[in-house]
Specification:
heterotrimer, A alpha+beta, B alpha+beta, C alpha+beta, A: seven-stranded mixed beta sheet, C: alpha+beta, five-stranded antiparallel beta sheet, four-stranded antiparallel beta sheet, 11 helices
């Protein structure tokens, strides 16, 4: 592990690898995930979905289903309140609630993608519910559909929604358009700067829609109680945002909704928007019983958010000496069926790794007949990096400069202004490049035919936002922590470790728990790589609060001024006396009663996570199948609280990126219907498809966090496609500019022009 | 509708009887009727392995077994492999090696790994990856899972536990050379 | 899915009479890895499902060098590669058995079920064709046999009539100097449906330098698994050299008549059919020479 010089403190807990607190429950099958939750009297809900990519709903007749034995409730969009346009911030992106409502259950007279929810019912068993769905008669008038982003931007394209107008530079277009938003960033004098460049390369890139792919399907159980209170047990990345969305869609006060987050089986950005929660609640209101809804895997693919398909054009100019002087990017990302895709971060990230004095970025958020896109791990950044990093690779080659040296010559650093405005504080991009250059992998020689090595860098903001936590001290010296961040990847432990470090007690002496919306303060979503950073910061502040109160208790014991009591590493001292945290915890009753610490934080700005990935591939010259031979991920974590879980994020993100690069894609037929809505045909990597993923954690202290944490979750998915494209180029001589670089596609490129 | 069917089976060493509809999968009955929710539903289609259990020592996707087929069988689920308050070495190594993130695929992986280590004492990385290819994980990138299975193999060997050699059923990777396309 | 009746048949006659009585509305259950998915997805309907795994004949796995292999139609794949002698005698069968789905699928799925599902992309059917397997069928009208190459008639369709079940697959004894191989191409390394597949069987002369007889079959490049007569006939009498394999590759590519779909294009599949034919010939010849050297 590489370490920055700025870090001098030796930690007792941070940097160690304790067994996670929820571990035993998860390896024995006892942990309660959303689908495992049971409440007596539960009935089972199912959703009827559109078979068309685009159609008017002429009528819905649910009478036969309502009368079917075993069916207890049926709802359609007409049962939901009519929602006005209102923008709600969901942490990793904002959403128009009218659109969110229409996405949850169509109530605007049309469907905009195959899989769009049209009606729902609840029945005594899931089988009865599924059978009864067939009794709901929906009359559709199919409309022409469009799924490719550039097609959707044409003047004569079918309109996905007829009330969306292009917003551009504060203006609104005269007529409806599939282009919902145009974003423009510009710095310096771009056209003049390109004239000064010795080498200019401009290339176009395409990427297919890919899905977050979490193994646990969406699930929710809702109970609309007789007293009007709604309780929802669900699998979500944010209990509070789920509560907010549900309350808004049902038009009831948030105080009447309690969201209880169950254990969550993966999210990666896809479990922020609600799908089932409001529908289950409405069904429960109708039948007076708890309603449980679980999606099938095809519903997950067809009904929930993929990440945008995209078209990106990147143009970069550099001097012979290897200095970037100008950049231009044009990005069109599909938003799916409703506005508000990932184009914003795409535009901010496209040049985020480099110091480019003059740059211009134009981005378009475009409606198509696909499921509404949702965040997926560094949303929007991977598509942009695939383009930019590929051009960087080509520029370095043309200039005859080593790709790491070229990046180092142009790397963003403290003081670099990103094209969208912000100036970086201390960041660790250069350090990841230096660590990559020094790695055994990079220094090794790749031998063998049809083999190549690629390298690419990546960036993600890593946000702060609101987190709350509280903890109480137990008489045996342990501390029970309640925090608001749902735990997808072991964050309970990384947060608890920061509290333990602050109090000078072992990680195991903290018992962390994720609270529901009534038992912990407001906490934003588990997303944006923010939990270990922001909720960790809250835990640190909780620790400081407890420590202050414990000093007061020691002062009471010793009959001295609290200001005289010092504490370090879990020992409290004053006037030559000392007492351990544990001993002091046993004396709380005699010093005034319980000690409870609490904190709420809202750090602003971003922590800026950078990574550099190295990959070796071999390409079968006959079949064009790519085998990943070796992979190394280098990333600045700021400070790795639990190194195993930092490595795990880097490895998992890299493998998701490998899947995106090589095989994952939504395949549509000519009528815009997804053809591969199963794990069989949507090809996520298996254990046999990837090698060991080596990791190098770089630690460049983040001054915005007491322990220097930057967050790590998202950045690792950004680099793989570009790195692999570079490796394929060196193995075959073919530069792939379309994802996925699947065997048929690569084979066609390798044989282009050879007849 | 057909009447419910009576099934007598053995689950985790205990005799169990239940009533089910013919259309119900073993996974459904384990989870919804018997309350054994450790086996997870990821795809209900045999493509993710989250519902892996052992039927007569052989790993199967319990979503692709009818519950009525459990008649007379011996079934082992994730709930049945820890003994006397001691985690199975595979479970212990998954914890120590941080081989899970969200954990929803974990029970299936542990059951497949158990089926492997019950047959092969010291599997290679490639063999582990091949045998676990029927189990999808989206969080970990598999690296730490492979390590945990290897560590568990070592721990089992050190504790003197031999693979159940009496079991004649080979693992596909071990029996003969597998050809890679 | 709609509920159905469930019966366990103890004998072939019982299974036949149960199935014959309900016709299309009755389905035979072996490993269930196709049937349960299809019932769940509404691709097939059943009022009655008949489990045949308690019928001894359908769970057969009997091999002798003199008589060959008798493989019960419901015998799961893992038992094939789990038997070292059988895996050595019929390596192309073992090649296919160990790559169908993951291990969990192989614990249940049977070669007979794979054949009766009659997918053009079925991995085990090309090996059945090149081993010239005889399929034993029992039905209301008695018993009959069908050659594996003639079993499938269209995607998902085969020669079985109302109430007929596949009982046993009969593999001829391995001829002296013969061996075979099966390969498929998939974008991943496991858990995938063949974009194309090829099985090659060869019988070499005593010197091991000439192909005396050969059979080549392809998967996923036609409405049914395909016996490639052109390449098979041409190979007979040719030297076992790379030039010969390359020519067979061309013939196989020409014989393939695939469609373009989500798994691959026409051009790519024709190309793969040739590549896989060539590669399986190399392996089959190599194995045949090894067998000649080492014996069984």
């Amino acid at each position: 592990m590489a370490s920055s010089k700025r870090e001098t403190k030796q930690y007792k807990v941070i940097g160690t690898r304790p067994v996670r607190h929820d571990g035993a429950d998860k390896v024995t099958g006892r942990a309660i995930y959303g689908a495992d939750f049971r409440v007596s009297g539960t009935v089972h809900g199912k959703i009827l979905r559109s078979p068309h990519a685009h159609a008017k709903i002429k009528s819905i007749d649910a009478r036969a289903a309502e009368e079917h034995p075993g069916v207890v409730a049926v709802v359609t969009g007409a049962d939901f309140p009519d929602l006005k346009d209102k923008i709600a911030n969901l942490g990793e992106g904002a959403v128009n609630l009218a659109h969110l409502g229409a996405n949850v259950l169509a109530h605007h007279g049309k469907v905009q993608y195959k899989g769009h929810a049209v009606a729902a019912l609840a029945a005594l068993s899931p089988h009865v519910a599924e059978e009864a769905l067939k009794l709901i008669k929906v009359e559709y008038e199919p409309l022409e559909s469009v799924t490719w982003v550039l097609d959707a931007m044409k003047d004569d394209a079918p309109l996905v929604l007829d009330n969306v107008f292009t917003k551009s530079m504060g203006k609104k277009s005269d007529k409806p358009s599939n282009i919902a938003t145009h974003i423009h960033f510009e710095t310096g004098k771009v056209d003049e700067a390109f004239k000064k460049a010795d080498v200019v390369i401009e290339r176009e890139f395409k990427t297919a829609s890919v899905h977050q792919g979490y193994i646990e399907p969406h699930v929710a159980t809702a109970l609309w109680n007789e007293d009007g209170h709604v309780t929802i047990w669900t699998s979500t990345q944010g209990a509070f945002t789920a509560r907010q969305q549900t309350a808004e869609l049902l038009q009831i006060p948030v105080s009447r909704v309690t969201v209880v987050p169950c254990e969550i089986g993966g999210g990666f950005g896809g479990k922020i928007a609600v799908y089932l929660e409001p529908v289950a609640a409405m069904l429960s209101r109708k039948c007076g019983r708890p309603v449980k809804m679980v999606m099938n895997r095809d519903e997950v693919f067809e009904g929930t958010g993929p990440t945008p398909g995209s078209f990106v054009r990147v143009k970069l100019g550099a001097t012979k000496a290897g200095k970037l002087v100008a950049g231009e990017a044009w990005l069109a990302y599909d938003a799916g069926a409703f506005p508000g895709g990932m184009i914003g971060p795409g535009c901010m990230c496209v040049f985020s790794c480099y110091e480019i004095p003059s740059a211009r970025v134009d981005g378009y958020d475009v409606l198509v007949n696909k499921p509404k896109t949702q965040a997926y791990r560094a949303p929007g950044a991977t598509q942009a990096a695939f383009a930019c990093e590929s051009v960087i690779d080509e520029l370095a080659e043309k200039l005859g400069i080593d790709p790491i040296e070229f990046r180092l010559m142009n790397a963003a650093k403290e003081g670099t202004r990103r094209v969208d405005g912000p100036v970086y504080p201390r960041i660790g991009f250069v350090e990841t490049l230096e660590a990559a250059r020094a790695s055994e992998h990079w220094k090794s020689k790749l031998v063998g035919k049809n083999r190549g090595r690629g390298i690419a860098s990546g960036f993600w903001f890593n946000i702060g936002l609101k987190s709350s936590a509280a903890a109480h001290v137990n008489p045996d010296g342990t501390v029970s922590l309640v925090e608001g961040s749902t735990d997808i990847g072991g964050t309970r432990t990384s947060v608890a470790m920061q509290l333990a470090e602050t109090l000078g007690i072992p990680a195991e002496a903290v018992q962390p728990r994720v609270g529901d919306t009534d038992s912990v303060g407001y906490t934003d979503v588990t997303g944006g790589s923010r939990v270990t950073f922001a909720t960790g910061l809250a835990a640190y502040e909780v620790g400081r609060d407890i420590e202050r109160q414990m000093r007061e208790r020691a002062a009471l014991l010793w009959e001295c001024d609290a200001a005289k009591v010092e504490s370090a590493d879990g020992v409290y001292r004053a006037n030559g006396k000392s007492i351990t945290f544990r001993e002091l915890a046993g004396k709380l009753d005699e010093t005034g009663g319980p000690v409870v610490g609490r904190a709420t934080v809202n750090p602003e700005g971003s922590s800026n996570g950078f990574a550099t990935h190295i990959v070796d591939v071999e390409v079968d010259p006959d079949t064009a199948k790519v085998t990943i031979l070796r992979y190394t991920a280098v990333q600045d974590a700021g400070k790795a609280i639990h190194p195993s879980y930092v490595e795990g994020q880097m490895q998992g993100g890299a493998v998701q990126g490998i899947g995106w690069a090589l095989n994952e894609e939504y395949v549509f037929d000519e009528n815009g219907r997804m053809q591969n809505a199963s794990y069989l045909d949507y090809r996520m990597p298996t254990a046999l498809d990837v090698p060991a993923i080596d990791t190098i954690i770089v630690e460049v202290f983040n001054p915005a966090h007491p322990y220097g944490v930057r967050g790590v979750g998202e950045t690792p998915i950004v680099s793989p496609p570009a790195a692999i494209a570079g490796a394929i180029y060196r193995a075959t001589g073919v530069r792939m500019r379309e994802l996925p670089m699947s065997p048929p596609r690569l084979w066609a490129e390798m044989n282009r022009g050879s007849g | 509708m057909a009447r419910k069917i009576h099934v007598a089976t053995t689950i985790n060493g205990e005799a169990v009887e239940f009533l089910c509809e013919a259309r119900q999968s073993l996974l459904e009955v384990l989870r919804d009727t018997l309350g054994l929710t450790g086996s997870k539903e990821g795809c209900n289609n045999g493509n993710c392995g989250a519902c892996t259990v052992l039927v007569d020592a052989q790993p199967v996707d319990s979503c692709l077994v009818l519950a009525v087929e459990a008649e007379g069988a011996e079934i082992t689920t994730i709930e049945g492999i820890a003994r006397d308050s001691q985690l199975h070495p595979i479970q212990q190594c998954f914890l120590e090696d941080a081989a899970l993130q969200c954990g929803v695929c974990t029970p299936g992986f542990i059951m497949s790994a158990k089926a492997l280590l019950d047959r092969v004492a010291n599997p290679s990385d490639e063999e582990i990856r091949f045998q676990l290819a029927g189990n999808l994980c989206r969080c970990t990138g598999y690296d730490k899972i492979i390590r945990a299975v290897k560590d568990a193999a070592g721990r089992l060997a050190a504790s003197g536990q031999k693979p159940a050699a009496a079991n004649p059923n080979g693992s596909p990777a071990r029996r003969g050379q597998r050809q890679r396309t | 899915m709609k509920d159905f009746e469930f019966q366990t048949a103890a004998t072939v006659d019982e299974a036949v009479s149960l199935l014959a009585a309900r016709g299309d509305r009755a389905k035979m259950l072996a490993g269930g890895t196709d049937l349960i998915v299809q019932l769940r997805e509404g691709l097939r309907q059943a009022d009655l499902v008949v489990d045949v795994k308690k019928i001894p004949e359908l769970m057969d796995l009997a091999y002798s060098p003199a008589k060959g292999l008798r493989l019960g139609a419901a015998t799961p794949c893992y038992r094939i590669y789990g038997d070292a002698q059988i895996a050595a005698a019929y390596p192309a069968l073992a090649d296919a058995a160990r790559i169908i789905g993951g291990w969990q699928i192989q614990s249940r799925a049977s070669v007979g079920g794979n054949l009766c599902n009659s997918s053009p992309a079925a991995d085990t059917i090309p090996p059945l064709i090149v081993y010239d397997v005889v399929c034993h069928v029992a039905g209301p009208g008695g018993r009959r046999t069908v050659k594996a190459a003639e079993f499938c008639t269209a995607p998902g369709k085969n020669v079985l009539g109302r109430g007929e079940i596949l009982t046993t697959l009969e593999f001829p004894p391995p001829a002296k100097g013969s061996s075979a191989a099966y390969l498929r191409f998939i974008p991943r390394n496991e858990m995938d449906i063949a974009v194309a597949g090829a099985a090659s069987w060869v019988r070499l002369n005593a010197a091991g330098d000439t192909i005396e007889e050969a059979r080549v079959a392809l998967a996923a490049v036609a409405p049914t698994p395909l016996f490639v007569r052109s390449a098979s006939d041409w190979l007979a009498g040719k030297p076992a050299t790379s030039e010969t394999f390359a020519r067979a590759r061309e013939l196989a590519g020409q014989a393939a008549r695939p469609i373009s779909d989500k798994r691959g294009t026409v051009a790519y599949r024709k190309h793969l059919a040739g590549v896989l034919t060539e590669r399986t010939l190399v392996i089959a010849v190599d194995r045949a020479r090894g067998v000649a050297r080492n014996g069984h």
